[in-house]
Write a structure and sequence with these properties.
Length: about 80
């Protein structure tokens, strides 16, 4: 079972890493991670849909198009 602080550490790391990072740098890092995990844009989208359904919160959905935009440096998502 995951402890109550399990979400805090990754979120703090992401927030710290995102401070002062350009959208192109963040997008490139995100793409490299996704590719290292052998995930397609569509696979990530499908996973976020499952998470959104289990959490009953549509804000967790990240479309393949939106993820591609982020990875291409078109925008830096808010956390």
């Amino acid at each position: 079972m995951v402890g109550p602080n399990a979400m805090a550490d990754p979120l703090l790391r992401v927030t710290h890493l995102a401070a002062g990072v350009s959208s192109s740098d963040a997008g490139l890092k995100l793409r490299r991670l996704r590719e290292r995990l052998n995930l397609t844009l569509r696979a990530v989208e499908e996973a976020t849909i499952e998470i959104a359904e289990s959490e009953r919160n549509s804000e967790f959905v990240v479309s393949a198009g939106r993820l591609n935009q982020i990875e291409s440096g078109g925008s830096l998502p808010s956390i």
